[in-house]
Amino acid sequence: MKVDGKAYRSIWLATDGWSVEIIDQTKLPHEFVVVTLTSAEEAAHAISAMLVRGAPLIGATAAYGMCLGLRDDPSDAQLKATAELLINTRPTAVNLRWAIQGMQKLLGPLPPSERVAAAYKNATRICNEDVAINSAIGDHGLKIIEDIWYGKNQKGVVNILTHCNAGWLATVDWGTALSPIYKAYNKGIPVHVWVDETRPRNQGAHLTAWELGKHGVEHTLIVDNAGGHLMQHGEVDLCITGTDRTTASGDVCNKIGTYLKALAAKDNNVPFYVALPGPTIDWEIDDGIADIPIEVRNSHEIEYVSGCNSEGKIEEVRILPKTSSSKNYAFDVTPAHLVTGLITERGICAASKAGLAELFAP
C-alpha cells in the first residue's frame, strides 16, 4: 500500500540484505517511524511491545527473527533458544507458532552452514505468500460488497463496520478485513467504514483510520460501543473483522470487543464476516472458548492513554483512580454460530468444520 505516494510493506529487508525494517506502529498516527531490527531479541521486543501486531505480521516478524538469531551462531542450541525466545512473546496469534515451527522443521535437518541462507529465503517466501493470500482474500470479499452495492441499485454507499486493525499494517500488505474494502474502493464502489476506536490501545483510531485515510477511503471513527446503535438504525450494511486464531470448527478469536459486535449484528440481521488467511486456522483445537489462550496484557494500557497535545507533543495521562484495579484482556472468542461466513484466500465458507474442510481439505 502507499503512504504519501510511496509504496510500503509493513516489514522488509534493509538495503544491507540482512537487517529487517518495520514501521513502528506504536508511533502512529502522529509519527511515521521506521525501526531497524538487528537481532532476535529486537524482533521479540517488537512483537511483545506491539511495534508490530496482527497475526500475519507477527508470523512474518518471527520468521525474520529466526534469521537474525542464527546469523552469528547457527548451532542446534541457538536454533532452539531463538525459537523459544520468539514463541514466548505473545500467546494468542497462531501464526507466531506456525512460522517458528515451520522454520524449525526446515532448518533442523540442514547443516549449520546452510541454515542462515535457508532461513532468509523462507522468511521472504512467507512474506510474499502473505501478500498473495491477502490479495486473494480481498478478491473474494469484494464479491460480498458488490452484491450489497447492486442490491442498493448502485445508490448511496456501502457502510461497513470493522473492529481493531486488520489492514495492511496487520499483515505484510493488503490486510485481511480491509483487503475487500480496498479492492471495492479501487474498483470505484463507494464505501464508507465505521472504525471502532478499539480500546485500550486504540488500534482502530490510531491505525485503521490512518491507513484508510492514506488510501483515500471514506471513514468515520466511533466509540467501541456505538456499533449496536448504528445497526439498529440501519447504518451498517456489513461487518468484517479479522482474527488472530480460528479453530477447526469455525470459532474466531479477535481483539476484545469483537464478540459484542457479532451479538449486535446477529440481533439486527447484519451480515458478520471474518477475513482470515489459512495459516491463522488452528487445526488442533475445536472449542475456541475453552482452548484458545487469551492474552492478558499489562494493565498500564487501560489505565493510561496517550495522544498528541496542543503543542504537537506525544504525552500520556492516567485516566483511572490510583486506588482502582484493572485487568486487560486482549482478545475474546466469537462462536461460529454468530459468524455469517469466513473469507479466506481459497474462497468463502461457512464458519464450521465442514465449511473449512471443504476449502482446506488436504
From TrEMBL:
User: Could you say which EC number(s) this protein's record lists?
Assistant: 5.3.1.23
Pathway it works in? Amino-acid biosynthesis; L-methionine biosynthesis via salvage pathway; L-methionine from S-methyl-5-thio-alpha-D-ribose 1-phosphate: step 1/6
Q: Which reaction does it catalyse?
A: 5-(methylsulfanyl)-alpha-D-ribose 1-phosphate = 5-(methylsulfanyl)-D-ribulose 1-phosphate
Instruction: Show the GO MF annotations.
Output: S-methyl-5-thioribose-1-phosphate isomerase activity
| List of residues binding substrate | R53, G54, A55, R90, Q203, N254, K255
User: Which Pfam families has this protein been placed in?
Assistant: IF-2B (PF01008)
First and last residue of the signal peptide:
none
Keyword annotations? Amino-acid biosynthesis, Isomerase, Methionine biosynthesis
Q: Where is the active site?
A: D244 (proton donor)
Q: Identify the residue position(s) of the site Transition state stabilizer.
A: C164
InterPro entries (UniProt xref)? IF-2B-related, IF-M1Pi, IF_2B-like_C, Initiation_fac_2B_a/b/d, M1Pi_N, NagB/RpiA_transferase-like
Matches recorded under PANTHER family: METHYLTHIORIBOSE-1-PHOSPHATE ISOMERASE
Give the NCBIfam families listed for this entry.
Answer: eIF-2B_rel, PRK05720.1, salvage_mtnA
Q: Which family does it belong to?
A: Belongs to the EIF-2B alpha/beta/delta subunits family. MtnA subfamily.
Functional description taken from the UniProt entry: Catalyzes the interconversion of methylthioribose-1-phosphate (MTR-1-P) into methylthioribulose-1-phosphate (MTRu-1-P).
| Protein name, as recorded | Methylthioribose-1-phosphate isomerase
Organism per entry: Sneathiella marina
What's the source species' lineage? Bacteria, Pseudomonadati, Pseudomonadota, Alphaproteobacteria, Sneathiellales
